Structure formats: structure tokens, C-alpha cells
Amino acid sequence: MSKYDVGGSQIAFQPGSDSQVLANKLGITDPKDMDDAELELLGKLYERVLNEALPQNAVTTLDPLVAEPHL
Predict the structure, then answer these.
(1) Taking the mean position of all CA atoms in its chain, how far away is CA 38?
(2) Which of 46, 47, 55, 62 has its CA 20 to 30 A from that of 37?
(3) Is the residue at 50 inside a domain?
(4) Residue 61: C-alpha distances to residues 12, 58, 67 (Å)
């Protein structure tokens, strides 16, 4: 079972991957290498979000974004 649900006429596999890896710009053909690349990129995304996108101070109930009800 694949971890991605793909189908239709748009599906394309990476040449040389024996139809195991979706087409990609990195030229990865081995499923293990793709898993490793995805894990590394996901880690970088988490790090960036946690370091850059979240407020540097603690979020409390006094914060207007938390205290005000959202509709």
C-alpha cells in the first residue's frame, strides 16, 4: 500500500524507480532515499515554523487573539 493516494492520467513515476517513487525534481528513484529526503525536509519545516512563525513570548489568556472569541 502506498502512502500517497494518486491516480488518473496525471500520475507519473520517476524514471528508474520501477514505479515505486513519484516523479520528483531531485531525481530520487529509491523509496528509502525518498523517505529520508521527506523526513529531512519535514524536520526543516518544523524547525522553521517553531523558530520563526510562533511568537517568542508565551501565549496567555490575556493575549487578545486568545481572549477574544473567534466567529
Answers:
(1) 7
(2) 55
(3) yes
(4) 49, 10, 5
The predicted structure's pLDDT at residue 25: 95
Domain that holds residue 45: 32-67
Distance of alpha carbon 12 from alpha carbon 32, whole angstroms? 18
Among 56, 68, 35, CA closest to 24: 35
Which amino acid, residue 49? V
Alpha helix positions (H), 13-63: 31-48
Phi, psi at residue 39, to the nearest 5°?
-65, -40
Q: What is the pLDDT of residues 13-34, one digit of tens each?
A: 999 999 999 999 999 999 999 9
pTM above 0.70, yes or no: no
- Whether 43 is in a domain gets the answer yes
